[in-house]
Amino acid sequence: MSAPRSNWKGYITFGEVTCPVALYTAASSSDRIRFNILNRKTGNRVRRDFIDSETGDAVEHDDQVKGYETGNGRYVVLEPEEIAAAIPDSDKTLAIDAFIPCDEIDDVYFDKPYYLAPQQSGEEAFALLRDGMKEAKVAAIASTVLFRRLRTVLIRPYGDGLIGTTLNYDYEVRSAEEAFDDMPDIKIDKEMLDLAAHIIGTKKGSYDASKFDDRYEEALAELVRAKIEGKPFKKVKAVKASKPSDLLQALKDSAGASKKSASKPKSAKSANSNSSSKKAAKQSGSSSSSPRKTG
C-alpha cells in the first residue's frame, strides 16, 4: 500500500521550536455515490455552460471573471491577479498563538479535520509538542494560509500524532438565538421527565464509528442495484411525529418496550447470525454490478 499523499507541508512553531510537519485529509467524501445529469430523452450526459444573463450567449472560460455585486445589478470586477495579490502570503508556518483548555471551543466552530504528522528530522520536536500538550491537557490555536485562505486551526493530540481542525470564523457561524427565537417556554410534567430519564438510562452506551453505517448511501446503492437488475424496490415509510396528546402514552410504551428488551438480551448465536447477514450483504454489494462512483 502506497503512503498517503499530503495536502500541505510546512512547519509548526511554538516558542523558538520549529517542527516540520505534513498535513493529511482526515475525512473524505470521495467514496460516496455520485450521479451524472442526463438528458431524459436521449440518455446522454448534460454539459453545463455559463450563459450571459442578458444576451443568452455562451461565455467561454477565458471571458469569465469574478465580480462582486454592489447593488442594482452593478458589479466590481476582480481580476485573477488582483485576487492572488490580495491573499496573505503563505510562509508555510502553523504559528501557535496560544494553548487553551481542550474543551474551550464550541464544536459549532469546527470545520474540517486533518492529520498532522512529523516530517523527517522533526520527530523529536513533534513528540515533545504532542506529549507536552497531553501532559498539560491543552489544545493549541494556530493560524496559517491553507488552500489560499488565512485559517485558524485547532491542534490537539490524537493517538501517536496530532489532529488539526480548521475553524469557522465568528461571522460564518449563525446565531443560535435566531434558530431558537420562536421556541415556546414549555414546562414538562415530572412523570414524563421520569419516563424520559428511564428510557435514556436504558439506551446509554458509547460511540464507535465503525458501528454506524451511512444508510443514505446504502439506500442509494440498493436503489441503483434494483434498477440495474430490473427488480422492484421498497419505499421507506414516512415517519409520523408524536402528537402532544399522545406523548405521555408514547413514553409509557417506550419505557415498557425498553424493560422487555433489557430482560431478553440478544443471544450470541443471533448476534453472529445478524453479523453474517450484514457481511453477506456487503459482499453482494461489492460485486461488479454494484453502484460506485460514476463521475
Automatic annotation (TrEMBL):
Q: Name one Pfam family in it.
A: Ku
Coiled coil regions in record: none
Q: Which lineage?
A: Bacteria, Pseudomonadati, Pseudomonadota, Alphaproteobacteria, Hyphomicrobiales
Bias regions of kind Low complexity — which residues?
A: 268-295
Stretches assigned to the Ku domain: 56-185
Looking up CDD domains in the UniProt record yields: KU_like
What family is it from? Answer: Belongs to the prokaryotic Ku family.
Q: Sorted alphabetically, which keywords does the UniProt record give?
A: DNA damage, DNA recombination, DNA repair, DNA-binding
Q: Which organism is it from?
A: Neorhizobium huautlense
Q: Which gene encodes it?
A: ku
What is this protein identified as? Non-homologous end joining protein Ku
Q: Which SMART domains match?
A: Ku78 (SM00559)
Domain of life from the UniProt record: Bacteria
Summary of the function given for this chain in its UniProt record: With LigD forms a non-homologous end joining (NHEJ) DNA repair enzyme, which repairs dsDNA breaks with reduced fidelity. Binds linear dsDNA with 5'- and 3'- overhangs but not closed circular dsDNA nor ssDNA. Recruits and stimulates the ligase activity of LigD.
Q: How does it assemble?
A: Homodimer. Interacts with LigD.
Q: Which residues form the signal peptide?
A: none
Which InterPro entries does the record match to this protein?
Answer: DNA_bd_Ku70/Ku80 (IPR006164), Prok_Ku (IPR009187), SPOC-like_C_dom_sf (IPR016194)
